[in-house]
């Protein structure tokens, strides 16, 4: 895992490693954590691992049923929609601020990121998701609002589980050329300083995103959507 030298304790290392495995699906939703096996694979005792599990539990990424029975939290349409609703509020704000505050370095980073984008579909898979995340991260970091950036980092981390799930559901086969076009339009609006238009486009972009269609598919699968 990149950046291990940034961690200051074994508990930090265990937390970051387990969090990555959960968010990337290496530890699937609903799976049981074999704590002693994990501790051995991370070359540490069980104590720092359990400290990491407590942190993950507070974030809702694992469920502690008993002292020894810990599972990766299941994914469901309710959490997906809650994450989506918060993103619908924060990402347009970030786009608006980015249009007002972007620097030359921000513009160069956004333009480099948009050039690497691929359609977020099952065909392109993880490569597309990584490039998509890098683009949106470049955009919201141009807001230069540290609180907003931290909130969006966490929000995007937790939402990525649902994007990956979306690739496995029927929406994952859609061509999604509209998304690619809107990414380029967002950069143009931000570079031109058209803050209100950037925020409006971002809101529409989120409304028609893979996450939104994945939520509908999840609700159908769970029998929650009224037609």
TrEMBL record:
Alphabetical list of Pfam families matching this protein: FCD, GntR
Keyword Repressor appears in the UniProt entry: no
Any one GO molecular-function label of the UniProt entry: DNA binding
Key words of the record: DNA-binding, Transcription, Transcription regulation
InterPro entries: GntR_C (IPR011711), TF_FadR/GntR_C (IPR008920), Tscrpt_reg_HTH_GntR (IPR000524), WH-like_DNA-bd_sf (IPR036388), WH_DNA-bd_sf (IPR036390)
PROSITE patterns linked to this entry: HTH_GNTR (PS50949)
Coiled coil: none
Lineage: superkingdom: Bacteria
Location of the HTH gntR-type domain: 8-75
Gene3D superfamilies listed in its UniProt record: GntR ligand-binding domain-like, Winged helix-like DNA-binding domain superfamily/Winged helix DNA-binding domain
Protein name: GntR family transcriptional regulator
Species of origin: Streptomyces montanus
Taxonomic path: Bacteria, Bacillati, Actinomycetota, Actinomycetes, Kitasatosporales
């Amino acid at each position: 895992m990149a950046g291990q030298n940034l961690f200051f304790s074994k508990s930090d290392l265990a937390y970051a490693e387990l969090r990555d495995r959960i968010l990337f699906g290496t530890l699937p939703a609903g799976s049981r954590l074999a704590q002693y096996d994990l501790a051995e694979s991370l070359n540490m005792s069980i104590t720092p691992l359990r400290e990491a599990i407590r942190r993950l539990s507070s974030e809702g990424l694992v469920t502690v049923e008993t002292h020894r029975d810990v599972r990766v939290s299941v994914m469901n349409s309710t959490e997906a929609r809650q994450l989506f609703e918060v993103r619908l509020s924060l990402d347009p704000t970030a786009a608006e601020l980015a249009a007002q505050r972007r620097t030359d370095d921000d513009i160069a980073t956004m333009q480099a990121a948009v050039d690497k984008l691929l359609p977020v579909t099952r065909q392109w898979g993880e490569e597309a998701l990584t490039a998509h995340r890098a683009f949106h991260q470049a955009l919201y970091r141009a807001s230069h609002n540290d609180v907003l950036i931290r909130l969006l980092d966490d929000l995007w981390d937790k939402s990525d589980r649902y994007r990956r799930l979306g690739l496995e559901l029927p929406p994952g086969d859609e061509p999604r050329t509209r998304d690619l076009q809107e990414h380029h339009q967002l950069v143009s609006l931000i570079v031109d300083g058209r803050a209100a238009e950037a925020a409006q486009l971002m809101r529409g972009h989120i409304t028609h995103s893979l996450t939104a269609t994945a939520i509908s598919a999840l609700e159908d699968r769970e029998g929650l959507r009224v037609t």
